[in-house]
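Reviewers asked in the last cycle whether our approach scales beyond single polypeptides. To address this, we selected a multi-component target totalling 590 residues and predicted its structure end to end. The input consisted of the following lines:
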Amino acid sequence: MNIRSTEIADTFAEAFKMWGARIVVTAATRQWAMAAARSMTGFATSVIGCKCEAGIEHELGPGDTPDGRPGASLLLFTTDREGMGKRLVERIGQCVMTCPTTACFNGLEAEKTVPVGGLLRYFGDGYQISKKLNGRRLWRIPVMDGEFLVDEQFGVQPAVGGGNILILGRDQDTTLRAARAATRAMRAVRGVILPFPDGVVRSGSKVGSRYKSLIASTNDAYCPTLRGVVAGSNITGDTNCVLEIVVDGLDVAAVAEAMRLGLYAAAKPGIRQITAGNYGGNLGQYKIELKTLLNIK
Amino acid sequence: MAPANPIAADQGWTDSGWIGEQAMSLNLTLHTPPAVPVEAEILTPNGTAGLDDAAVASLAVLHGNQRVPIGDFFRVRGRGNGVIHLEGDLSRIKHIGAGMSAGQVIIHGDVGAHLGAGMSGGEIHVNGNAGDWVGPEMSGGRITITGNAGHMVGSAYRGSTTGMLGGEIIVHGDVKNETGHAMRNGLIAVGGNAGDFTGVNMRAGTIVALGELGIRTGASMKRGTIVSMHEADILPTFTYACLYGPVYLRILLQHIKRLGLPVTDEYILGQYHRWCGDGVELNRGEILIYRKR
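The resulting structure, written as structure tokens, was:
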């Protein structure tokens, strides 16, 4: 199975059930909206160490936001619904409410909701104001530049985390270029985010460690420096660099579509193989077969 | 030309009048104006559901101190299916839509007092003027008046501590005194001027007047928001806070604009003077006055 000169491994990405939320952040200018968006989605690369995964889904123009100001749509994923409520309150409280001129709205119509503004309101120390419009309750919390406006409830829904592709290239430059091409293509899909720095992760992990305190450790099978050391290394031929792109989405179709676009965009001269990470199908609830993705087109 | 009222057009009415019973809704046309007020709280989608024209015509209403069939005043056509059309000068017909919880009442002509009193859902649309007591103590639904309304819009009844509990009242023209008296939730939006004592004893909720306010606005209000696009006499028990652009107002005013009131972009994007009060009460209310440029 090839795309141009790049081999596509006959394997699958193993993805997991998660919970997802969409957050719309607005501000007086694009600069402040993006400042809040970056802050809110920072330190959210992996649930292993960050308790959640988050990213900027896309920017929003004034015509696309509830208050007619520039903004951004963010997605946040957690392993359970209770955790989602906590992460939203922490991050909106510390990263959005603190940012000048911002407001924060629920961007996901869902059956289940978690309270966010309904808890953040207490920061108003009794001076907060509740407003209900079109069946939706908003809280106006007094802050030093005016008011922070936030939805009382945010929708949460079952989602999918851990879709991925691994790009095996002949050198670091070539692999980085392929990875960047892939992330650009994958970001065009609505309902997904790539939670790692600029969408790319170099420190892929395997489950477990020789050290008891760690639940994950380096994915030694894909470390080029360990080719002659690790039994079962997946580094072959003239492969000298591996980069991974992880994708989380509000549904498996969006994750699969992002992976498909990533495969085609990353398949460039110098990329020897594109494969996907899995745990033998024993852990995740979803198997996204790479060959199935190629047959979609 | 598109009809001014899309709801009415959907149900067989156009700007030129009645064009047919396509929707099979209940249609009542006034043929004999009453000499004294008629109390017609039975005229709700709930009260007429499933009834044919003869059954509706036999429903009793209070004419002065006499119970008489509604057919004495109205020609009835169609069947109750959740939508009622009323036509004529109904300024002496009171309590239309009182207590309704769903459906639509569409009125072509002026309407009397207590319209939609205590309603909890559904929609009332008046292509004309309304009397006093529009939507008193209502808890849900929407009332739209394309003309003017009288005193006590969305208010508490005398002796009651709580007025409007929810829903929306949209008046394109003017309203008289004590609009939103003791209201606790919901929205009253006025395209024209509001009379004296707007928001008196207000507990919460929102009143927006695009025109001018009378005197003693927000007297004894505990919480709640009163917005005006014109300078107003502010009671001395209110204190000035600041000039700012509340983000919530952008959302609220866009909502009101979608409902047909003449909200300009300047209002949506503008700065507002905030007054806090009433200091003789909880002091958690606010009056927001648009700063003219």
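The two ends of chain A are 14 Å apart (CA to CA). We regard this as preliminary and will revisit it once experimental data from Aim 1 are available.
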